[in-house]
Specification:
- The chain is built from twelve helices and 14 strands.
- By secondary structure, the chain is α/β, with parallel strands linked by helices.
- It has two domains: about 200 residues, P-loop containing nucleotide triphosphate hydrolases (Rossmann fold); about 90 residues, ACT domain (Alpha-Beta Plaits, 2-Layer Sandwich).
- The longest helix is centred in the middle third of the chain and has 18 residues.
- The relative contact order is 0.12.
- Bound molecules: adenosine-5'-triphosphate.
- Adenosine-5'-triphosphate binds next to strand 2 and helix 1.
- It comes from Bradyrhizobium zhengyangense.
- One of its GO terms (cellular component) is plasma membrane.
- This is Cell division ATP-binding protein FtsE.
């Protein structure tokens, strides 16, 4: 029933022979999570019948609408929450059974990054990164060496003595990533880590996470409500709805043949790009700047590319186009390639963005293609 043998999802619940999954880093076994009634508030059944595994070294996206149970699922992985039924096995240990010192030790091998970074404002970047090492009892000399290494790894070696208030959102998240990796975890949990960042910075942070996965072999579990984030980074995706896994498998399979209405609705959100195009978009200047234009209304986009090309005298390429009819309106997006100048300058792309903005057409720069 599943496209990928390491992901086994129940609906109805299919109990996996765990011996057949020697490479599972995280295994959810018959998990449910019920938050009990509290001070007159009714109990909440946040997760039911969760049964799947996350392969060692993989990048798995967990996507769902608000309240679907994503944060509950991720807090079960690092033992911040206990399941109401079932076990969560991380690196062959039942983390749900651990308490006290044993749990704290296990948590050192599971790093986490957050939407709002969760840095201490009174500490410099270096001292924020040092914190988990201080707690783990490392010597001052070892901490100093490790922090220098981590700052370089996340590309902010020059921000050692900066306070969070002196850093951009992307730089703060780099500090958060370095802190999460400090104790050399096997698993990195990302809870909406790019939701507060602009598209360009999001892309840079996702590239950094991809490098970390490739170079350090860290298993990444990525919680998000944005399909574009899953599409850019994850190889596997798990779609959650109302506490249940409704679809899972390879990202490319799920995106080309979404079966569940929730998955289809994520794809219709307008931020979707063909997988083949996403894999071509890079951050370093290539031959064309890539600009996504949102179009809306009768005949949306029909003449836009031709007008843009004619009025600005540009050789505009249409890299992708998607127009849906929603409630009788045409809504969609065009992805355009605008050639860089001979010297690699972005004058043409800047003029195109100004032209679009003059007509109140919303547009964003996604990166470059070679
Ligand atoms: N500590 C808690 N006590 C009671 N109910 C909770 C608690 N944490 C989460 N819930 C409830 O459990 C359900 C799932 O919440 P959860 O935060 O896991 O979803 P989510 O997909 O991460 O949502 P969001 O994207 O809004 O953060 C929701 O109905 C939520 O109100």
């Amino acid at each position: 029933m599943n496209a990928h043998p390491s992901l086994v999802i129940g609906e109805p619940v299919e109990i996996q022979d765990t011996a057949a999954q020697p490479d599972a880093m995280v295994r959810f076994e018959n998990i449910s999570k019920i938050y009990p009634a509290y001070r007159g508030k009714p109990g909440v059944s946040a997760l039911q019948g969760i049964e799947f595994a996350i392969a060692r070294g993989s990048i798995t996206g967990v996507i769902g609408r608000s309240g679907a149970g994503k944060s509950s699922l991720v807090r079960l992985i690092n033992g911040l929450e206990k399941p109401s039924t079932g076990r969560v096995v991380v690196d062959n240990r039942d983390i749900s059974a651990l308490t006290g010192r044993e749990l704290r030790l296990a948590q050192r091998s599971i790093g986490m990054i957050f939407q709002h970074f969760n840095l201490l404002s009174s500490r410099t970047a270096a001292d924020n990164i040092a914190l988990p090492l201080e707690i783990a009892g490392w010597s001052k000399a070892d901490i100093k060496a490790r922090v220098t290494e981590l700052l370089a790894l996340v590309g902010i070696a020059d921000k050692h003595d900066r306070y969070p208030s002196e850093l951009s959102g992307g730089q703060k998240q780099r500090v958060g990533i370095a802190r999460a990796l400090a104790t050399r975890p096997d698993v990195l949990l990302s809870d909406e880590a790019t939701s507060a960042l602009d598209p360009q910075t999001t892309r840079a942070i996702l590239d950094l996470l991809a490098n970390i996965n490739r170079e350090l072999g860290v298993t990444i579990v990525l919680i998000t409500h944005e399909m574009s984030v899953v599409r850019q980074l994850a190889k596997e995706v798990v779609v959650l709805d109302a506490g249940r896994v409704v679809e899972n498998g390879h990202v490319a399979d799920i995106f080309t043949h979404p079966k569940h209405p929730i998955t289809q609705s994520f794809l219709a959100d307008g931020d979707s790009l063909p997988v083949s195009l996403v894999s071509r978009i890079v951050r370093e200047p290539g031959s064309h700047a890539v600009i996504r234009v949102q179009v809306r209304g009768a005949g949306a986009g029909d003449t836009l590319v031709a007008r843009l090309a004619r009025e600005l005298g540009l050789d505009v390429s249409l890299l992708s186009a998607r127009i849906d009819e929603i409630g009788g309106q045409h809504v969609g997006s065009l992805v355009l390639g605008i050639p860089l100048d001979d010297s690699g300058g972005e004058g043409a792309a800047t003029r195109a963005l100004a032209w679009l903005s003059q007509y109140q057409i919303s547009a964003e720069r996604l990166g470059y293609v070679a």
